[in-house]
């Protein structure tokens, strides 16, 4: 049934958001808005252009001598002032925030430049010369397990860092006796949420106290505070961590800022002044954190009617180059929920964690859920297809039945409340499922590709800290000591004028903390919501907090708001005793309403709330016996249902569980492969709804991000580990034009485990929507195996089949560049007024080469056929300084020569060769012809085909054309330099 709030209650009403006035008028206070101390320095990071290489040398003298530079730090200096970061599994491996002897992913920090301002720091970073010896890379998790795979961490002896097997019930017997075994293989790709605001850190060091004071837009969980303090070698009370009042989104991503907190803290210590670093967008895409990619084999033991008796999971988790805390959280967060919304009693699980040459992973909205439900709900559709059943009937047949709650799953989760069949039935009826079925029939009758997708998920919230210890064996857990539970903190304070302030250790990223908590407290104390002020920034040196503090796993409404209600009730109970004495009535007669405290049977007998609330300040001697004070009340709330994993590895990995049932209609364009969401319906049971408008906002936000995951977003890597989606022109994010209007429905079953009856709602659609859309696409196209994102090109290739071979003779394929770099080719010719001998002599002249090499600052002649140069080039938003090696070979004077070159810099690397031929075109005239091949990798390659291919062709072609122009006295084709400047952003 739906719970509606009484008219005299604030909770349950969509009151205007307190936060919006400042945000909509540009008065938000984000990390880059906060004032810094006079003398604050700024940092720029030199990052690896290679996915895997040893560092043979780092030359920093030029950078240290550059104007405004205070310090340049490499891995050696960082290691001298810090320790390896804690790794979440027992393994012989270290994890540093900066590369030391080896780089393991594109974008890994190699050096840190500290200067008077960011501009000077960036300029000096270009002067840091790093010499690499490139190693083979591995980016595919299955390939990383091969015996001959490149090993990222030699001390580990391989790339498999952890493996565990689990068995619940009797899955072997269930599979042996099943009518059918149906299984699928799925690969969930890497993607990431992309907040408007990137990472930011301001760090300061106090040598007198040996203490650090850091402000960062860190989301939490604050268990990472211990990781930071240990890495810096100080006790927790010497590592003060503060957050700004506002955050420009996080979605889990900003928990990954903590390695940079360590780097900037060390930089502040070495420089002797505060250090500030704000991440740019290119850095964020390439080197912050992403969700894990996962390869899954899932099988079901199924009866003829579609009833599932057992599941068998085999999950291979790719956590990138380092297993950074809190990983492997993404793999184990859903451990209690591996049966989803279904009553399945037998489960077998194999979990493996592998390292690859990709960015280390972290929390991402819905972490763990999208990977699990994409496999499980694709399997549900496959079962229906192979058994010839209606997919909706298969879902209904397997749901946890009504009346079974609280329901204990096979793997240990305690599903708190719900009526899944009733919620599904309401979605089918109110969402117009019958109409959608008719629409599919009509569309298909017209010859159009139209499908319906379904998805049914349980959304966990309020994570049990102990779930991650399931990665350890029971013996290892006993040795390490118990870890379990969740804790939320809230403090309510009353000042001498009776004004109420709420303080929580939860960092908001759009959840409306200040509005919702004011509603909760106003209800308990009988106040108007405008009378309650809420503070939601965090200061570990000032606030009440615990390692579970933070804003993650949809814990705000059930845990943080719940703890706030408990604190409000405790202080109200004390105020009730004070008011009873002032009103000369019994305590059960005291009523709080509309800013007054009155006698329930005689409303005219009242005093103002402020008078009662301030009594502990002005007249503490008048407080009745048993009331110590009414000034401040702090609550630490811990739910008893969250116990540690038992010896059978069963764990209630989250406190409360919402229910979501989605269905959608999707049409696929036969010619282009483009998917269009025609209708999307999402039903949510998130317990008691505290603020309907904000719940709708959370659902819409999660849905929009999930549409991106389903149809657009993917972190793409070349075989050599080069990152290929490093700009928003290549990592596509849906806009309002691509996100349809979802139909949002609700079914409320309040949780018996949370103070307010609320459950989480912010992550659910990130779990349900990608697979719902995929199931619709599969239904429309008949394709069995689908890989996200379902881009038009990916679907069109599958729909159109093999392309008809051309009758024209095929050109011989050129050899691909080494290491999977982006391949570039080109050719051209120009006629100039100079003899072949003149042009030939110019090829051996450093001054000529400096004049014709685009962006060259100077050319050094090493030998007659070997030159070095410093070059500055930019491609779109990427501009950097490179070191170039140029060699001449196969000399046939004055007829032909091969020109080979290699460039390397902080933004990437490239290598290639071109053949130049000189032929007479008449007296004193020569035709200069050229052809070339090149490969480009690293960050410069990640800007993608929209910019790089055309711009690089111009750069390479411009060299040869400029050579011709120089030889001919400047008679090159008009507009080439103008075109080059336009494409590359070069200064005149």
Automatic annotation (TrEMBL):
MF-aspect GO terms: 2-furoyl-CoA dehydrogenase activity; iron ion binding
InterPro entries: Ald_Oxase/Xan_DH_a/b, Ald_Oxase/Xan_DH_a/b_sf, Ald_Oxase/xanthine_DH-like, AldOxase/xan_DH_MoCoBD1, AldOxase/xan_DH_MoCoBD2, AldOxase/xan_DH_Mopterin-bd_sf, CO_DH_gsu, START-like_dom_sf
Biased composition (Low complexity): 807-818
Keywords: Molybdenum, Oxidoreductase
Region named Disordered: 798-830
EC number: 1.3.99.8
Domain of life per record: Bacteria
Oxidoreductase as UniProt keyword: yes
PANTHER family in alphabetical order: ALDEHYDE OXIDASE 1-RELATED (PTHR11908:SF132), XANTHINE DEHYDROGENASE (PTHR11908)
Name of the featured protein: 2-furoyl-CoA dehydrogenase large subunit
Organism field: Aurantimonas endophytica
């Amino acid at each position: 049934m739906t719970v509606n709030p009484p008219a005299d209650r604030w909770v349950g009403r969509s009151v205007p958001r307190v936060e919006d006035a400042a945000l909509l008028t540009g008065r938000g206070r984000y990390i880059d808005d906060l004032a810094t101390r006079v003398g604050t320095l700024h940092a720029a990071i030199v990052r690896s252009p290679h996915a895997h290489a040893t560092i043979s040398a780092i030359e920093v003298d030029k950078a240290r001598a550059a104007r405004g530079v205070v310090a340049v730090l490499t891995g050696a200096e960082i290691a001298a002032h810090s320790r390896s970061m804690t790794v979440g599994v027992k393994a012989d491996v270290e994890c540093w925030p900066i590369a030391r002897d080896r780089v393991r992913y594109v974008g890994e920090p190699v050096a840190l430049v500290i200067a008077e301002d960011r501009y000077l720091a960036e300029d000096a970073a270009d002067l840091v010369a790093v010499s690499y010896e490139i190693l083979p890379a591995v980016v595919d998790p299955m390939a990383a397990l091969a015996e001959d795979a490149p090993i990222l961490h030699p001390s580990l002896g391989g790339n498999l860092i952890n493996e565990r097997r689990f068995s619940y019930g009797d899955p072997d017997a269930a599979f042996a006796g099943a009518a059918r075994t149906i299984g699928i293989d799925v690969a969930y790709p890497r993607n990431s949420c992309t907040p408007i605001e990137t990472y930011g850190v301001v760090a300061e060091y106090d040598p007198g106290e040996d203490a650090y004071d850091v402000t960062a837009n860190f989301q939490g969980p604050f268990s990472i505070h211990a990781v930071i303090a240990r890495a810096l070698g100080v006790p927790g009370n010497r590592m003060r961590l503060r957050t700004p009042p506002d955050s420009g989104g996080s979605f889990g991503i900003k928990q990954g800022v903590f390695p940079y907190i360590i780097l900037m803290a060390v930089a502040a210590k070495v420089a002797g002044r505060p250090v500030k670093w704000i991440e740019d967008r290119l850095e964020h895409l390439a080197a912050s954190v992403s969700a894990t990619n996962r390869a899954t084999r899932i099988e079901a033991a199924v009866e003829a009617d579609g009833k599932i008796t057992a599941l068998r999971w085999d999950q291979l988790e790719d956590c990138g180059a380092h297993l950074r805390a809190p990983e492997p959280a993404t793999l184990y967060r859903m451990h209690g929920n591996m049966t989803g919304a279904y009553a399945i009693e037998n489960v077998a699980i194999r979990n493996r964690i592998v390292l690859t040459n990709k960015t280390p992973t972290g929390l991402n909205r819905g972490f763990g859920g999208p990977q699990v439900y994409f496999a499980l709900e694709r399997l549900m559709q496959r079962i229906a297809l192979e058994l010839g059943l209606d997919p909706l009937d298969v879902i209904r047949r397997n749901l946890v039945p009504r009346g079974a709650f609280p329901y204990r799953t096979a793997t240990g989760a305690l599903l708190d409340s719900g009526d899944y069949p009733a919620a599904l039935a309401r979605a089918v009826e109110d969402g117009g499922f019958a109409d959608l079925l008719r629409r599919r029939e009509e569309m298909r009758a017209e010859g159009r590709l139209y499908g319906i997708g379904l998805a049914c998920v349980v959304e966990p919230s309020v994570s049990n800290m102990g779930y991650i210890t399931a990665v350890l064996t029971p013996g290892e857990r006993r040795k390490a000591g118990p870890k379990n539970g969740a804790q939320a903190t809230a403090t309510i304070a009353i000042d001498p004028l009776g004004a109420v302030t709420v303080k929580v250790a939860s960092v908001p990223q759009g959840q409306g903390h200040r509005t919702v908590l004011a509603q909760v407290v106003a209800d308990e104390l009988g106040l108007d919501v405008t009378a309650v002020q809420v503070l939601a920034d965090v200061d570990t040196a000032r606030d009440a907090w615990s390692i579970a503090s933070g804003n993650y796993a949809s814990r705000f409404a059930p845990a943080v708001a719940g703890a706030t209600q408990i604190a409000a009730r405790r202080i109200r109970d004390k105020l009730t005793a004070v008011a009873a004495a002032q009103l000369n009535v019994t305590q059960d007669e005291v009523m709080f309403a509309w800013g007054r405290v009155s006698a329930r049977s005689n409303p005219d007998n009242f005093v103002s709330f402020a008078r009662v609330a301030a009594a502990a300040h002005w007249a503490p001697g008048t407080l009745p016996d048993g009331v110590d004070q009414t000034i401040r009340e702090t609550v630490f709330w811990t739910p008893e249902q969250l116990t540690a994993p038992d010896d059978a590895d069963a764990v209630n990995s989250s406190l409360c569980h919402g229910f979501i049932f989605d269905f959608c209609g999707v049409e696929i364009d036969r010619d282009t492969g483009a998917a269009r969401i025609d209708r999307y319906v999402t039903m949510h049971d998130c317990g008691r709804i505290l603020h309907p408008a904000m719940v709708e906002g959370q659902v819409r936000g999660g849905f929009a991000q999930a549409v991106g995951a389903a149809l657009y977003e993917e972190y793409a890597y070349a075989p050599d580990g080069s990152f290929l989606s490093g700009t928003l022109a290549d990592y596509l994010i849906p806009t309002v034009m691509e996100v349809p209007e979802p139909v949002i429905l609700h079914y409320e079953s309040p949780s018996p485990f949370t103070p307010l009856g609320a459950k989480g709602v912010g992550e659910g659609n990130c779990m349900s929507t990608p697979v719902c859309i995929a199931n619709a696409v599969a239904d429309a196209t008949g394709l069995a195996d689908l890989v996200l994102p379902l881009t038009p090109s990916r679907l069109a290739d599958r729909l159109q089949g093999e392309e008809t071979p051309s009758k024209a003779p095929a050109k011989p394929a050129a050899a691909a560049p080494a290491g999977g770099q982006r391949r570039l080719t080109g050719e051209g010719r120009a006629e100039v007024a100079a003899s072949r001998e003149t042009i030939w002599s110019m090829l051996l002249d450093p001054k000529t080469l400096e004049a014709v090499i685009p962006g060259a600052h100077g050319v050094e002649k090493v030998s007659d056929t070997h030159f070095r140069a410093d070059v500055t080039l930019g491609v779109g938003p990427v501009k950097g300084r490179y070191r170039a090696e140029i060699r001449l070979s196969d000399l046939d004077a004055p007829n032909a020569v091969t020109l080979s070159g290699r460039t390397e810099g902080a933004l990437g690397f490239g290598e290639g060769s071109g053949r130049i031929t000189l032929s007479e075109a008449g007296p004193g005239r020569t035709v200069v012809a050229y052809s070339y091949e090149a490969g480009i990798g690293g960050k410069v390659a990640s800007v993608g085909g929209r910019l790089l291919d055309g711009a690089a062709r111009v750069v390479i072609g411009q060299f040869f054309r400029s050579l011709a122009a120089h030889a001919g006295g400047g008679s090159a084709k008009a507009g080439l330099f103008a075109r080059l400047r336009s494409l590359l952003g070069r200064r005149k």
